[in-house]
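Structure first, sequence second, as always.
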């Protein structure tokens, strides 16, 4: 198997981590007879310094034309005062949208050997931590309209039924493969977008009778993840909620650096 991989080394600790990941890929290639061709791509703070843009079209094109992208962390204090549209994180959003990777999948699993790294009580950890958060990645408030008028800033949270259904099916299919329990997280007591989310998820549930669907408000979910993470098999949620909850979930395993994360699209 031959694959072309775009490599974004990123900023700060990013290049150090990516370098180790490349060693792992090289060993995989050696053991299983694969061939990985690497193309370096500048994104984030390093791209701002080089091009004045967190992800120029020429660099995005390299990613789109590759089979996969290996991504290191981007951003840092050096670029905190860069105007909003030019911040390092804007490159990340542009990359996700440009590649159409709408599903972020982040497992939170505690390994026996690393159980002491968890900040949770032993009695909680011993029940087991092994679930996946499926996060919608290219919609919601991060991709809605943002504007500031005087001293008032407005960020619009926007989702279509098709976008919700698309990520919802990923949640149901993932739950079907592991544990059969799917927790749909939203804020339907406050947000219209969450009420559409809940309605769409319950419509999809009729197609997956073998999956047990439950609803949970995002604030309650944040509490339940630290109170009793063993209750979860798969959590599916929108972009901003998933961003926060997946980081919380990673911390209960000891560190965000201990868990993998993939961002996938339709192909």
């Amino acid at each position: 198997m031959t694959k072309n991989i775009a490599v974004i080394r990123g900023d700060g600790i990013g290049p150090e981590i990516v370098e180790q990941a490349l060693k792992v890929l090289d060993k995989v290639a050696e053991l299983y007879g694969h061939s990985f061709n690497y193309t370096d791509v500048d994104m984030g703070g390093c791209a701002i310094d080089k091009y004045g843009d967190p992800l120029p079209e020429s660099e995005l094109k390299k990613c789109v034309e590759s089979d996969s992208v290996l991504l290191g962390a981007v951003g840092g204090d050096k670029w905190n005062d860069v105007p909003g549209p030019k911040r390092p994180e804007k490159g990340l959003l542009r990359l996700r949208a440009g590649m159409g990777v709408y599903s972020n999948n982040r497992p939170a699993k505690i390994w026996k050997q690393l159980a002491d790294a968890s900040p949770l009580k032993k009695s909680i950890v011993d029940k087991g931590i092994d679930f996946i958060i499926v996060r919608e990645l290219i919609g919601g408030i991060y991709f809605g309209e943002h504007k500031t008028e005087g001293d008032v800033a407005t960020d619009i949270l926007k989702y279509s039924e098709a976008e919700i259904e698309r990520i919802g099916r990923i949640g149901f299919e993932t739950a079907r493969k592991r544990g059969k329990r799917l927790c749909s997280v939203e804020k339907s007591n406050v947000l219209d977008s969450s009420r559409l989310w809940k309605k769409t998820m319950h419509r999809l549930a009729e197609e997956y009778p073998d999956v047990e669907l439950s609803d949970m408000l995002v604030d309650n979910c944040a509490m339940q993840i630290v109170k009793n993470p063993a209750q979860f098999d798969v959590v599916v949620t929108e972009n901003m909620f998933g961003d926060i909850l997946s980081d919380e979930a990673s911390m209960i395993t000891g560190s965000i650096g201990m868990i993998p994360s993939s961002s996938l699209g339709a192909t």
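Margin note: The longest strand covers residues 2-8.
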